[in-house]
Amino acid sequence: MASESTPSPFTTLGIVGTGAMGRGIAQLAAQAGLKVILFDVKEGAVKEAKTFINGLWERSADKQRITKEQAQHYSEQLTEASELAALAPCDIVVEAIVEKLEAKQGLFSDLETIVSQQAVLATNTSSLSVTAIAATCQHPERVIGFHFFNPVPLMKIAEVIPGLRTADEVTQRVNALGKAMGHFTAQATDTPGFLVNHAGRAFGTEALRILGESVTDPATIDRIMVDQGGFRMGPFTLLDLTGLDVSHAVMESVYHQYYEEARFRPSPLTRQRLAAGLLGRKTGEGFYRYVEGKQQMADEPAIAEVSPCPVWISQDDPESAAALAELVNTAGWPLETSPQPTEQALCLLTPFGEDATSCALRQGLDAKQCVAVDMLAGLYKRRSMMTTPITQHTFIQAAQSLLNHDGTPVSTLQDSNGFVLQRVVACIVNVGAEIAQQSVAEPATIDRAVELGLGYPFGPLLMGDHYGATRIMTILNNLLEATGDPRYRPSPWLRRRAALQMSLTTA
Question: Does the predicted model carry a pTM greater than 0.90?
Answer without folding.
Answer: yes
